[in-house]
TrEMBL record:
Protein name, as recorded: Large ribosomal subunit protein bL12c
PANTHER family to which the protein is assigned, alphabetical: 39S RIBOSOMAL PROTEIN L12, LARGE RIBOSOMAL SUBUNIT PROTEIN BL12M
Location(s), subcellular: Plastid, Chloroplast
Listed GO CC annotations: chloroplast; cytosolic large ribosomal subunit
Domain Large ribosomal subunit protein bL12 oligomerization: 4-42
Known partners and oligomeric status: Homodimer. Part of the ribosomal stalk of the 50S ribosomal subunit. Forms a multimeric L10(L12)X complex, where L10 forms an elongated spine to which 2 to 4 L12 dimers bind in a sequential fashion. Binds GTP-bound translation factors.
Source taxonomy: Eukaryota, Rhodophyta, Bangiophyceae, Porphyridiales, Porphyridiaceae
Large ribosomal subunit protein bL12 C-terminal domain: residues covered: 63-130
UniProt keyword terms in alphabetical order: Chloroplast, Plastid, Ribonucleoprotein, Ribosomal protein
Length: 130
């Protein structure tokens, strides 16, 4: 260590806590640095709470519409809606409606999924969006 650095260290040792805080503040302003930031050599392990809050939560963009139950007295109305949504023929749509729970629409947008749910619920079906 050079004598210049040794002198600075000795002067720093003689500073009061208030003077040291003032020195840090002045160094931060003069050199545009943040003394509270961790140095590159240190590794800080975040707690589990920090990890969860640091990672952005992905908003789900694709939804599956599942036909859960079909009341027997509403089967024909639901069958018509299923055909219009899926484009299936009468036989395929009938098999789908009779074998609940069944996937009606896969990987669709939220708006589309809600629209399908509304149509099928108006016809009398029980729907789940996942």
């Amino acid at each position: 260590m050079t004598t210049k650095i040794a002198d600075i260290v000795e002067q720093l040792k003689s500073l009061t806590l208030l003077e040291a805080a003032e020195l840090v503040k002045q160094i931060e302003e003069t050199f545009n640095v943040d003394a509270s930031a961790p140095s590159g050599g240190m590794m800080i392990m975040p707690s589990n709470n920090d990890v969860a809050s640091a990672e952005p939560v992905e908003e789900k963009t694709e939804f599956d519409v599942i036909l859960e139950t079909v009341p027997s007295d509403k089967k024909i109305a639901i069958l018509k809606v299923v055909r219009s949504i899926t484009g299936l023929g009468l036989k395929e749509a009938k098999e789908l409606v009779e074998s609940t729970p069944k996937l009606i629409k896969e990987a669709t947008s939220k708006e589309d999924a809600n629209s399908i749910k509304k149509q099928l619920e108006e016809a009398g079906a029980a729907i789940v969006i996942k």
